[in-house]
Design brief:
Strand content of chain A: 15-25%
Distance between the termini of chain B: 17 Å
CATH class of the domain at 612-784 in chain A: Alpha Beta
CATH superfamily of the domain at 612-784 in chain A: PurM-like C-terminal domain
CATH architecture of chain B: 3-Layer(aba) Sandwich
Helix content of chain A: 25-40%
CATH architecture of the domain at 612-784 in chain A: Alpha-Beta Complex
Strand order of the largest sheet of chain A: 8-10-7-11-9-12-13
Number of strands of chain B: 11
Distance between the termini of chain A: 64 Å
Shape of chain A: globular
Order of helices and strands of chain B: EHEEHEHEEHEEHEEEHH
Largest sheet of chain A: 7 strands, mixed
CATH topology of chain B: Rossmann fold
CATH class of chain B: Alpha Beta
Radius of gyration of chain B: 17 Å
CATH superfamily of chain B: Class I glutamine amidotransferase (GATase) domain
Number of domains of chain B: 1
Radius of gyration of chain A: 27 Å
Strand content of chain B: 15-25%
Structural class of chain A: alpha+beta
Number of helices of chain A: 25
Structural class of chain B: alpha/beta
Largest interface: A-B, 57 and 52 residues
Number of helices of chain B: 7
Oligomer: heterodimer
């Protein structure tokens, strides 16, 4: 505390000596305010500020030290993930990761990507929770100076037919509604994502969301005040929705075992976001064209308090925030609520004071924010100071209500959590009956593997006019985000909890492996990955072991799967953004299964080579990459047909994965259009992969597959050991194939899979496959 | 860029303005995105107007209702009255209906509405590709559809929650055919027979309606999302699907045209503009 300033209101200066009543006062505050911080952390805060903390300081640090913001349990493990490669412009640390994409018409473009979770809110208020998930993640990408070119959700729901099925079904409907209502209105194409049903998520659904953006390389904006602010006064402009009390305590809410807390869920407004994104674009264009350096950051967890302290502290500066200047929609809110509420649709902008009126004019006059939403507007709320202290004032007398070293606010806390090995059940079923026609029908029409088209039908996947391959048409959605350029982007997010539950290391590694395969199957070369690590309570040593193992698996797979195109360097696949979501467990139930979810973005130099999964012509060869291993643990076949989880999961073989991926990319390059289709092998193995390729041809022709040599061998048919199937034009399959590749069959007329001595009529299964999800989740609720 | 000047009006909440302008520009039209309240834009001088898709004014009151009352729409109404071509796509179509420009049987009156989708077993938003036939009477006098052949099946995507055309009492039966510019059909051009080929329960299978003069067209499907062949789904049946499946690289620029290009090419054609591709 500087000598010439009064002590914050309501607090006495405490430098004179220890306060015997401090602990009891802190305990009282923690309880009365529902803070998540421990007494130890509260004492640490008191020592930082040198007195009893003010209410605002308590809430600010409670947010900044929450698991959600500080990664206090996970940080030590996250350091082991590879984050650097030649294409990386910006790794984890700011709001989104950035990698170089391409040069078009002499301008260099970057891909911007962010990955978050919105699990707890979606369980309680599915529509609002899922909508806000999209709303939050797109802000992370917008604030890097990018246009958002796509979003995708990775969803994990409970068992819609289980004991809590009714609740689960309403959550599924609500989450899908929240996603479409937000993203469709915002005008951002939905790039699909994935959906897994499993009873272990009954009390804790997972709603992970990824946003991708495109930005000029030289127009990337950082989320802190520029160095120039030491020489020229910079102010903080707050723009967007007027502040209310929604989402107060949201980050803390996400950092504890789930209990009903409706007030912690925010209210999203895609309309306002759309107008803001257009206005932001006009503002940034003006600043770039005038050569003015600026900082830009979205308001998420911790609201104004977090954004202001982080923008200042990351440049080693301070800020003076005048809380009275913050536009509010409710009068009389306590200052800590105004400062820390997570009201949606707000951004913070650090600009020179001289230009502020022009910027405010764009928001308030050109785009008429105050007219479009009552109380919405841009306003100067503070000024950055070379003195690295964070100060908040209010009232006519500019009373200090918070004062702390800015650096201390963002320094965070860190814990080494104890862990103890807790491997999953490793037992295998005694018998493995194999009846392909019945098995394949069961798998294709069960909830685990039935078509997700009912969900996609609500999503606008084509807005912006860049979409080339939609959800379901290929393993990864392909967009061409630069009009006139041949470059395409393929993106997929994956994670298989049935493997992770048995072996979290393999679960982590295969999450990377499958996302890479899905991207590669379209013909794209992976550029970067993101991860969202969804686990139970990290204070439980067995959960923390699962977390450590999963991170180790992801790191290992990323080290193996850097696939550089030009340079021969052995860089890894870099993780450029991510998120950790702990405490996914309910007071009554156990933790969710280890659920690392990995998203991979890849680039196609020429998107015309992008391949879908639909079979194209009878007589083509079916080329299988990847030997089928007897490792059916966690497989769809075991779960659906045997009723057993299994214990022997496929082992991740990084060298083989890498060779297979490079083989696919070479075949696509060398054979071009003679590779008609490509599909990765995942749930249900080769048999289900081929059935999906066949069903994808159904709308315009009917083609199937003949597999002469697989017999009734469940390993050959259903093993989920990683691999690919390619349809290659008749007579065009290369002679000199690598040892992991062989022709296993050919494409035949008719919607059929034929083995030796058996045959499956897919036409009779098709309606069950395509309509099942709607009939369970939507239609049976009597909705019309 | 020279060529006929086309204003693509950006309302608060519009979200298809840029790709719509792009699709128009690729046909030699000088299409510019104009902010709804930009009085310096000189839109009176524009030769044609496009109201793009989106959620203008958050669909408050009804989709399109608030935008229809904005000052800029007075200029559009005047232009339409003077015979200038006006196209509304999706939310733009909703605005044209709410402004009374279509069907326009009695000037200034709202005589149609775009009601919520009606389909069995589901409600709300629906995205899918559908097939369209030009209305016999309208296409010939509508600049936007001037290049369509009678009986030509046009696949385009829809993406909306309120796309069901309904008309003021007595309108549809007698005068409906005179303004039904595009009609949902089966992939082979036959009767759609309800859902899914009539995706929203629209009256008379109407996917687009015009005014009686034909210069104002309100269409629910999105031609701008199908202006290029690569935008077409590879699973589409019919000749456009065959063309898409035969598409091969390398693909610089926008590549071959898709089915939606005809709407923008039709306007360019009505101005005598042709682009060699």
């Amino acid at each position: 505390m500087t000598a010439d300033r009064p002590a914050p209101a309501g607090c006495r200066d405490d430098r004179s000596g220890p306060d015997p009543g401090l602990d009891s006062a802190l305990i009282g505050e923690i309880e009365a305010r529902g803070l998540a911080m421990t007494l130890e952390e509260a004492r640490h805060l008191a020592s930082i500020v040198g007195r009893r903390p003010t209410p605002l300081e308590l809430h600010l640090f409670d947010t900044m030290w929450s698991e959600h913001c500080s990664y206090k349990s996970s940080r030590s493990q996250l350091r082991t993930l590879p984050t650097d490669a030649p294409q990386v412009v910006l790794g984890p640390g700011e709001d989104a990761g950035v990698v170089r994409l391409c040069v078009h018409d002499g301008v260099e473009y970057d891909l911007v990507i962010a990955h978050e979770s919105h699990n707890h809110p979606s369980q309680i208020l599915p529509v609002e929770g899922a909508a806000t998930g999209i709303g939050g993640i797109v802000r992370d990408v917008y604030c890097m100076g990018a246009d958002v070119i796509g979003v995708l959700d990775l969803l994990r729901f409970g068992d819609p037919l289980g004991p809590r099925g009714s609740r689960t079904r309403s959550i599924v409907r609500g989450v899908v509604e929240g996603i479409w209502q937000y993203a469709n209105a915002l005008g951002v194409p939905n790039l699909g994502g994935d959906t897994v049903f499993c009873g272990s998520y009954d009390d804790n659904c997972l709603v992970n969301v990824v946003a991708v953006g495109l930005a000029r390389h030289d127009w990337i904006v950082h989320s802190y005040v520029p160095e120039r602010a030491r020489d020229e006064e910079y102010v903080l402009i707050l723009v967007g929705k007027p502040t209310d009390d929604t989402g107060f305590g949201g980050a803390t809410f996400a950092s504890a075992v789930l209990e009903e807390q409706l007030g912690a869920v925010q209210v999203a407004d895609p309309f306002l976001k759309r107008v803001l994104s257009e206005a932001n674009r006009a503002v940034q264009r003006l600043l770039h064209e005038r050569g003015i350096e600026f900082g830009f950051k979205d308001l998420g967890a911790g609201g104004i308090a977090c954004v202001s302290s982080e923008m200042a502290a990351h440049s080693g500066m301070g800020i003076e925030l005048d809380l009275d200047r913050v536009p509010v929609s409710i009068e009389g809110l306590p200052p800590e609520v105004v400062a820390c509420a997570e009201t949606q649709e707000r951004f913070g902008l650090a600009v020179p004071r001289d230009i502020a009126p022009d910027i405010i004019g764009i928001y308030n006059d050109d785009y008429e924010l105050p007219r479009l939403f009552p109380g919405a507007r841009a306003e100067v709320v503070g000024r950055f100071t070379p003195d690295p202290v964070y100060r908040v004032t209010r009232g006519a007398g500019r009373d200090l209500i918070a004062e702390a070293p800015a650096e201390a606010i963002v320094a965070g806390v860190s814990y080494e959590r104890p862990w103890s090995e807790a491997p999953g059940d490793q037992s295998e079923p005694a018998e493995r009956a194999c009846d392909p026609p019945a098995d394949i029908e069961r798998m294709l029409t069960g909830m685990a593997c039935c078509s997700r088209s009912a969900i996609w039908s609500y999503y606008d996947s084509e807005v912006q006019g860049n979409t080339m391959l939609r959800p379901g048409e290929s393993d990864a959605v392909v967009i061409r985000p630069l009009p006139g350029s041949s470059v395409g982007i393929a993106i997929s997010g994956d994670g298989n909890p049935f493997i992770g539950r048995i072996d979290p290391f393999q679960g982590g590694a295969h999450a990377v492996g499958e996302a890479v395969r899905n991207v590669v199957a379209t013909g794209a070369r992976p550029m970067c990955a993101t991860d969202c690590l969804n686990f139970g309570n990290p204070e439980d040593p067995s959960v923390f072991w699962q977390f450590r193992e999963s991170v180790r698996g992801i790191a290992h797979a990323c080290e193996c799967l850097g696939l550089p195109d030009v340079s021969e360097c052995e860089a890894p696949l870099p993780i450029v953004s991510g998120n950790v979501s702990f405490y996914n467990q309910s007071p009554g139930g156990g933790p969710i299964p280890p659920s690392p979810i990995v998203c991979v973005a890849g680039r196609l130099d020429d998107a015309s080579h992008a391949r879908g999964i639909g079979l194209r012509s009878a007589g083509s060869s079916l080329l299988l990459l990847g030997e089928r291993m007897d490792a059916l643990g966690g497989s769809l076949y075991y779960r659906e047909c045997i009723g057993h989880a299994g214990g022997r999961v496929p082992g991740f073989d990084g060298t083989l994965e890498r060779k297979m991926a490079l083989c696919v990319l070479e075949l696509l390059r060398d054979l071009g259009d003679d590779v008609h289709a490509c599909h990765d092998i995942s749930e249900g193995g080769l048999a289900v992969a081929l059935a999906e390729m066949s069903l994808a041809s159904r709308s315009w022709t009917c083609l199937g597959a003949e597999l002469p040599d697989t017999g009734r061998d469940p390993v050959a048919l259903y093993s989920e050991s990683p691999g690919y199937v390619l349809e290659i034009a008749q007579g065009r399959c290369p002679e000199d194939l690598p040892p992991f590749a062989r022709v296993v069959g050919r494409v035949v007329e008719g919607l059929v899979i034929r083995g030796s001595g058996w045959s499956v009529d897919l036409e009779s299964i098709a309606s069950g496959h395509f309509d099942r999800l709607a009939s369970v989740v939507w239609r049976e609720e009597g909705l019309t | 860029m020279s060529g006929p000047l086309v204003a693509v009006l950006q309302f608060p909440g519009s979200n298809c303005e840029y790709e719509t302008a792009r699709a128009a520009r690729s046909q030699g039209l000088d299409a510019r995105v104009v902010r709804w309240n930009d009085r310096s834009a000189g839109i009176e001088a524009c030769d044609a107007f496009i109201l793009p898709g989106g959620f203008s004014f958050q669909d408050r009151v009804r989709a399109g209702a608030v935008a229809a009352k904005e000052a800029v729409m007075d200029a559009v109404v005047r232009a339409a009255g003077a015979g200038k071509p006006v196209l509304g796509i999706c939310n733009g179509a909703q605005i044209l209906v709410e402004s009374g420009l279509v069907p326009g049987w009695s000037a200034g009156n709202v005589e149609a509405a775009l009601a919520g989708n009606m389909s069995p077993g589901r409600s709300g938003y629906l995205s899918r590709w559908i097939y369209l036939l030009p209305g016999q009477e309208v296409a010939a006098r509508c600049p936007w559809l001037s290049l369509m052949e009678p009986g030509q099946v046009l696949p385009l995507p829809i993406a909306h929650a309120e796309g069901r055309f309904v008309f003021a009492t007595g309108g549809a039966s007698s005068r409906g055919p005179q303004v039904t510019a595009l009609r949902y059909c089966a992939p082979d051009g036959g009767d759609p027979g309800g859902f899914p080929w009539n995706p929203n329960g629209s009256c008379d299978d109407a996917a687009a309606i015009s005014n009686m003069e034909g210069n104002v067209l309100a269409m629910m499907p999105h031609p701008e999302r199908a202006a290029c062949l690569w935008q077409v789904p590879p699973s589409l049946c019919g000749p456009w699907g065959d063309r898409r499946r035969a598409l091969s690289g390398p693909m610089e620029g926008t590549g071959p045209e898709g089915p939606g290009a005809t709407v923008f090419a039709g306007l360019a054609n009505s101005f005598g503009v042709r682009v060699d591709r």
